[in-house]
Structure formats: structure tokens, C-alpha cells
Amino acid sequence: MSAVEKMGKALVTGASSGIGATYADRLARRGHDLVLVARDEKRLSDLAAKLKAQYGVTVDVLKADLTQRDDVRAVERRLRDDAAIELLVNNAGIGPKGPLLADDIDYLETMIELNVVAVNRLAIAAAQTFAERGKGAIINIASVVALVPERFNGTYNASKAFVLNLTQSINAEASVRGVKVQAVLPGLTRTEIFDRAGGSIDRLDPSMVMDVTDLVDAALAGFDRGELITIPSLPDADDWDAFTKARLVLAPNLSHNRPATRYGIERAEAV
């Protein structure tokens, strides 16, 4: 078992496959009891039985469709009421079916319900609850497309940019209250998400596609190091630091009482 501080019971959304199921395995290996959340109760139950047998942990199954707000509230209640839960892995999400201009707008709205509305509610519920207790951790799964919005479906990119910004903002408030926060930004990852969206991972350049176990192991290594933002593919962490510094250079000039002189706008006369 890892020598890192044990965080208590972990609740993992989107736990029936892919990144979520891999987090469940790795956290169980570390000795965490689990609450597994997803729509597919059969797959959750099979995974729960496997993890119980392999690692001797307690695993509860909570069936929920996080595109449905009543189900989101049920998961929220579990987060708030179960005092043993000290870690949320906010992983559930779906990807696009194609380019934005060719995608189904109803499907994109469902994506927002899952990738944004549900993630937001559960992250805030966890942050509020953990801050009140003075301990706990939140891992939000975003994506590298949050940083390169020109290169992928706009709604999906925007949903993951939301997750990134939400994580940074929660950290600013909650870190001083004992809450540890991390956003993980995967690149292309070998999971079922492509098949579900009608594509195939095999069509992609294999040099750009990371195995899901490597992704989660790297993300947890970043978590153990206390990283706020973890980009498993990024070779040099200094590049992220430089990006952050460049962004913050803008801060002093983002709000003034007059337009910048480059626009040539004369000061309005008081009426």
C-alpha cells in the first residue's frame, strides 16, 4: 500500500469503465473503501465484487444517471451525509460525436448536464462538506482540450475548461480550510468514450494515445505531490508554470474605469 496519507472512503463517479474504474482499482489498492457511481449497475456490481475480493475493502454501489438532476442530488446527499467519505473523484463525462457544426444539439445539451452541471454540483457539495470538516480531497477530471479550444468540439472543450476553472477557484477558497484539490487534464486516452461517441481509438495516432492505467497512475503521482493541475503527458512542469505566470500578467489590467488607449475612445462627459 502507498505510504501517502490515507484519505478515507472515496466516491468515484463514472466508475463502471475507463478512467473511473481504473481509479477505483488504484484507490482500493491503497486501502480506500469505495462508493462507486454510474448508470450500469451490473458492471458496478461486478467491479465491486472484484475489488472486495482482491483488496479486502468495502465497496458500495450507487446506481445513478448523472444527466438526471434527481440522481445527481442523490449522490450529493451521499457525499454530504456519509462522514467516512473524504475523497471525491469527479470523473463521469461524455465526449462529442463529431465536429460541433455536425453534432446533435440535444446530445450536446446532455453533455453539459453531465460534464458541467453534475460536476459542478458534486464538486461544490464536496468542497462545502470537506471544508466544514477541515479535511478531504477532490479530484476533477478535465482535459487538455481546455487549453486548446480551437482543436476539438467546442461544447466539449468548453465543458472541460469549466472543470479546470472550477477546480482552480475551489482551491483558492477551500485549500485554506484543509481541502486538497486537483484537476487532471488527460490527452487522448484508451477508453470506451470513443466507441460510445461513434468513433474508434484505433483511427488515432498511437503515439498520442495513453493507456488508461498509465494515465491514472501518473495522475495519482501528481496528487501525491500536491499538484493542483496534473497533465500526465506534459514532459516539463515548468511549461505549465510559465503558462500560469503569463496568464496572471494580465490580471492587473483586466478591469479599469476607462477603455485602453489603443481603442481611441474619448472619455465620456458626465451628464
TrEMBL record:
It comes from Ensifer oleiphilus. Keywords: Oxidoreductase. It holds the Pfam family adh_short. One of its GO terms (molecular function) is oxidoreductase activity. InterPro entries: NAD(P)-bd_dom_sf, SDR_fam. Coiled coil: none annotated. This is SDR family oxidoreductase. Belongs to the short-chain dehydrogenases/reductases (SDR) family. It comes from the Bacteria.
